[in-house]
Write a structure and sequence with these properties.
The complex is a heterotetramer, with two copies of chain A (about 325 residues) and two copies of chain B (about 325 residues).
Chain A lengths: L7 H26 L15 H7 L7 E5 L3 H7 L3 H8 L23 E5 L5 H15 L5 E6 L6 H12 L4 E7 L2 E2 L2 E2 H4 L16 E5 L3 H16 L5 E6 L17 H9 L2 H11 L5 H24 L19
Parallel strand pairs in A: 1-2, 1-3, 3-4, 4-8, 7-8
Antiparallel strand pairs in A: 5-6
Chain B lengths: L16 H15 L3 E5 L17 H5 L3 E3 L4 H13 L3 E6 L9 H8 L2 H4 L9 E6 L14 H5 L5 E3 L4 H13 L4 E6 L22 E4 L4 E5 L3 H13 L5 E5 L2 E3 L3 H11 L2 E8 L4 H13 L8 E5 L8 H7 L3 H12 L1
Parallel strand pairs in B: 1-2, 1-3, 3-4, 4-6, 5-6, 8-9, 8-11, 11-12
Antiparallel strand pairs in B: 5-10, 7-9
Helix pairs in contact in B: 1-7, 3-4, 8-12, 9-10
The chains are: A alpha/beta (about 325), B alpha/beta (about 325).
The complex binds thiamine diphosphate (2 copies) and magnesium ion (MG) (2 copies).
One magnesium ion binds next to strand 5 of chain A.
Chain lengths: ~325, ~325, ~325, ~325
């Protein structure tokens, strides 16, 4: 399995995804603060380079399962910003017709299969998607995202064991942002590195700096190649931080000030932009053009969301079963 | 057992529920490569299931049939994921009480993904399980818990009482585009009954009039369909004519059939093995009262098990379950 | 919030449910060293609970109050084990839907150990959780699932509607020798109400006549107690006299109070936020019909939520929940 | 922590417990085959030296939680044979008044707190018992038994993590008999040794020959000392075999013949007896006397069970709550 250094085009593609996630997130929070939108919103600001790097290695055929804190994963995988924004705004034009909201984003045509609000539940479902591809003889892989806190729940254990005994083509991505709601890593988790838990399942466990797109890319590349070639599952732990607390409104009193300051100082977004420019993977002008393009995309998404109609009340009778109820 | 020899499905030769369900799985798997099957011990190396409902399937269908590690949450979730992309998993939970370790994937996921995704995804899976008191299996291996799932919109609940229905309902459950919980009862696995005809599917949501009658409607499903007919026969001798309805699908309930019958008889009794309070009988009773209050000649009666865990010792198990005398008394009460 | 300053419990100053529950926990912990408390985020380092019901407790009571890893099955089982040897754990499940990951310890263990051990052990624990639609929390964070537990013999279900009841019922739940599921609703955590008097316990299994009336009995609990009174007030103006009963304990139901009332009024309406089918309303409706069939002037009506998952968008959430107009229509129907 | 070689008295005490378990088991099966008793019975024949050795290190104050296959654990801990037999026979005089049966044996005065029929459920409950002793400042320890198959279920993971972060005085004993119902170890379990999974929880994991009483004793001694002195939990994996299948009636077709034969050849019971005699820990006469005593004890237990009355039907209304129902 090769450890390829991604080329400039790839590196810029990763940046573009990061920029989309970052700006969409800033704008959602802005809209909430301005009272234009209201919802339980779990910002992933600070974690964007994980899905940005991983999804660059995925095709639309590959499957993604993520969690309530998964807007970044979904955008990186291809959920259109317009449909995301309309869903967040609870509009009929949202990807889930306003029925799902931020915790249940879905968009199958880009492989965005399931978003769950239940801690741990992404992993068993991802095993099933991977099982389907395995049985069908496809080379698709499935990526399951989850948090550090989720590594302490039973579904984690059952999924990794099942993925291993059945050699499923699944990549289990733990986005370790050091907190589970307000509980710090060590208070809930009995192991120094979650990646080490892979040994309990005879599975490789990779521990990477989740704020380094190249490191994430290389780890994901190994895991994806392994999965595509029938080698089975891999656990990746990507160390990161979330800047906006557990959900909007969380004031972060439980985060030691120095820890927070250090995390913000390590913000992967400006760091990566400078790195791209310094290493001549992109010019400042190119970066500006990307940002401008994304700004336009989000302007359009927000306008679309705001101008879209709310769902009709009759929709509570639909999609419960294949037929309408009552 | 003639495992998987579905050619042998002749209406003439009686078969038992195990054979019928085995045929249903076999025929569905043969017809549709998306049908897969897993659960603890279902592979032939492990015996083809603890009562052998899965016998022969892994031998014939290879890796589409798998014994799982003991991890119901893990493999139930795997069924959900596979179903979301069009596989049709039939996943076995060995005994019904073990749903308690995997409720989340059933009720928060399988039952809700269609709705929460705005119809973009759906979950065509079947959860098969079995249960029943009377085997000294004690408090953690005997409960009928169908009411939990009936109260969960998005999932259907099917509970057959005889081999032909078992076959036909399981085929329809597998075809169904939404999740179906399919509950067997242990009490008549080995009782011979009319054999199913290959390919004959019984629509979900349709009750069966087991026996027409004029004076009182007795509604049962699953295990209680063993107990109602003998009581009805006894009363018949006295000139009391009992109409017996086998619900077959417990959610959604076929209210058309139920109400048409009770409209005719003016009296209704519901019998189920699950504990009485907050059980399926309560929903049926309230719906009948709501719809036919003025036509009813007596309040609807419920006959069910004692509101306790299932005990171990045989005399206590007998005291836990309703008796034939209880059914008889309830019927007489509606006629008083 | 005046955390733990139970001296401040003066009947004069209104307080909200959060304060009342915090006081109940505090007072119980102060009086009995066996009372312990754990759940996600309940420690003060983690904020004292997501709505701060546990604020100040870990600071005062040290390791008797603990934030847990996210592992509901693990810590629910730990509560069961501790209770078996006489601790009195109050364990918090952050939101009601998460019971789906730890049902086994609740329904197969906590509820059954007294019976299965032949009375040698019992499980004096309280499971506190909260839920409710109307917060755009979507399908996996909003369900009222009390009916599952009402259908589980061995556990009691308590659902308060106001701060004074919250305090008094939680104190009794902690004292109770058997497991109690205690369900808050999110909708009125911050609404001020009459303050509890320190030490005043409200017995489990006793309903409260919220308002006496003559023409129709409307039965609610938890969240629906916010919605019934305004509708009753409106009808009062027309001369319709509504008796309102707050069940408070949903299992076991105080049938004495319910039946005495309905015997008097001859009419009954039940209102709950949980989805209608197979809900608590069904049990109540059937019991009332069974007991008072001849006295009832109209069939018992049930008002509840739409049989679907809870949707996200506000207009859909509104369409999911019953409306005041639905309650009014049901009352009028019984009077027609 | 010392690795004491148990003295002769202790070694003989272990043997006595093994003999009680072994003979009780033989007799139960005999009674079932003769049609005198009927039940779902999960024989632990072959696994007896695990609880025999461990419980020699425990007092009546220490807590035990076990599983459906737990008659051996309960007898070793002190559940009187009479009460066991009456419970198995479903009699009013059984330890659980005939309400629990073999899967729910309980006898608090000897610390036999809970027997569960749900795979994995023994471990969270054991954590709670250990938590109670920790909070009360007691030196009691709690032993939780479970099987190899149970190490794949979520409750295992959650319990070990919780036990570790809270440093609970609990000893998690995996009686690895190589099969979970009819499923062989490797088909369900993705790790070579279950003891290795302890590393995921920063906990010692001891792997011992479960057919060697001295090895089990020494491992348990370490774990118990650690727990009693506030050092926290230990995972012990004891390798063993069950000779009578999953439950009586299981014909063992799924067990490779050679594997079965080798296991029976390694039967710990006769092996240990010979070893005791050969190493002069006991004389043949002493062993005979023990066996005779146990035979008498079981004779009495069986007679008591058979002659006891069944429970009264009214008992279904009792013990649901503290008060009688209906
Ligand atoms: C089974 C379950 N328990 C509790 C919760 C409440 N909850 C939501 S997010 C969360 C913390 C999860 O932390 P982590 O896994 O680290 O993910 P992060 O939010 O940090 O991305 C908790 C406890 C839940 N959604 N599901
Ligand atoms: C949650 C759950 N799933 C399935 C079962 C059915 N079951 C009973 S014992 C058993 C095998 C357990 O194997 P192991 O843990 O190795 O213990 P052993 O029986 O070998 O002692 C299974 C699957 C159960 N009791 N509980
Ligand atoms: Mg986290
Ligand atoms: Mg085993």
């Amino acid at each position: 399995m090769g450890m390829t250094q991604p080329d400039s085009k790839t590196l810029v593609a990763i940046y573009k995804k990061m920029a989309l996630i970052k700006h969409s997130d800033d704008r959602v929070i802005g809209a909430m603060k301005a009272g234009r939108m209201q919802m339980p919103y779990y910002s992933a600001r600070g974690q964007e380079c994980i899905p940005a790097a991983i999804s660059t290695l995925l095709t639309d055929e590959d499957y993604l399962v993520t969690i309530y804190r998964g807007v970044h994963d979904m955008l990186a995988k291809g959920l259109p910003a317009k449909l995301l924004w309309a869903e967040l705004a609870g509009k009929a034009t949202g990807s889930c017709k306003g029925k799902g909201g931020p915790m249940h984003l879905t968009y199958p045509s880009k492989g965005c299969m399931v978003t769950t609000g239940i801690v741990g539940a992404s992993m068993p479902i991802a095993c099933g998607l991977a099982l389907a591809s395995q049985l069908r003889g496809e080379t698709r892989v499935t990526v399951a995202n989850f948090g550090d806190g989720a590594s302490n729940i039973g579904a984690f254990h059952e999924s990794l064991n099942l993925a291993s005994v059945w050699k499923l083509p699944v990549i289990l991505v733990c986005q370790n942002n050091r907190f589970a709601e307000h509980t710090s890593y060590a208070k809930g988790t009995s192991v120094a590195k979650i990646a080490n838990r892979a040994a309990s399942y005879d599975m490789p466990g990779l521990h990477v700096d989740g704020n380094d797109p190249v490191a994430v890319y290389q780890a994901a590349q190994q895991a994806i190649e392994r999965a595509r070639s029938g080698g089975g599952p891999t656990l990746i732990e990507a160390l990161t931080f979330r800047f906006n607390g557990h959900l909007i409104g969380d004031m972060g009193e439980y985060i030691p000030k120095a820890e927070y300051a250090a995390a913000v100082a390590a913000d992967p977004y400006p760091k990566y932009r400078s790195w791209l420019i310094d290493n001549r993977h992109a010019t400042s002008a190119e970066i500006e053009a990307i940002e401008a393009g994304i700004k336009a995309e989000i302007d359009e998404a927000e306008a679309f969301a705001m101008s879209s109609p709310p769902p009709d009340a009759i929709e509570v009778k639909r999609d419960v079963y294949a037929y309408d109820i009552a | 057992m003639d495992t998987n020899t579905s050619t042998q499905q002749k209406a003439a030769a009686p078969v038992n529920m195990i054979q019928a369900l085995n045929w249903a799985l076999h025929d569905a798997m043969e017809e549709d490569a998306n049908v897969i099957h897993f659960g603890e011990e279902v592979g032939d190396a492990e015996g083809g299931g603890i009562v052998k409902i899965s016998a022969g399937l892994s031998t014939k269908f290879g890796s589409r049939v798998r014994s799982t590690p003991i991890s119901e949450m893990g493999f139930m979730g795997a069924a959900v994921g596979a179903a979301v992309v069009g596989m049709k998993p039939v996943v076995e939970v060995m005994l019904m009480n073990f749903v308690a370790v995997c409720m989340d994937q059933i009720t928060n996921h399988a039952a809700k993904l269609r709705f929460m995704s705005g119809g973009q995804t759906h979950v065509p899976m079947v959860i098969r399980t079995m249960t029943g008191s009377g085997f000294q299996n004690g408090g953690q291996h005997s409960d009928f818990l169908e009411a939990w799932f009936c109260h969960t919109p998005g999932i259907k609940v099917v509970m057959p009482s005889n081999p032909a229905d078992g076959y036909g309902l399981l085929r329809s459950a597998i075809d169904d585009p939404d999740p179906v919980l399919f509950i067997d009862h242990l009490n008549n696995y080995w009782t011979p009954g009319v054999a199913p005809v290959r390919g004959t599917k019984i629509p979900l949501g349709k009750a069966r009039i087991h026996q027409p009658g004029k004076d009182v409607t007795v509604i049962g499903y699953s295990r209680s369909m063993l107990d109602i007919p003998p009581v009805a026969a006894k009363l018949e001798a006295e000139g009391i004519s009992v109409e017996i309805i086998d619900l077959r699908t417990v959610s959604p309930i076929d209210m058309d059939t139920v109400l048409a019958s009770v409209k005719k008889t003016g009296r209704a009794v519901i019998v189920h093995e699950a504990v009485k309070s907050f059980g399926v009988g309560a929903e049926l009773s309230s719906r009948i009262h709501e719809a036919l209050f003025r036509e009813l000649k007596a309040p609807v009666e419920r006959v069910a098990s004692n509101d306790s865990p299932v005990p171990y010792a045989p005399p206590l198990e007998a005291a836990f379950l309703y008796s034939h005398a209880d059914i008889e008394a309830a019927i007489r009460k509606t006629l008083a």
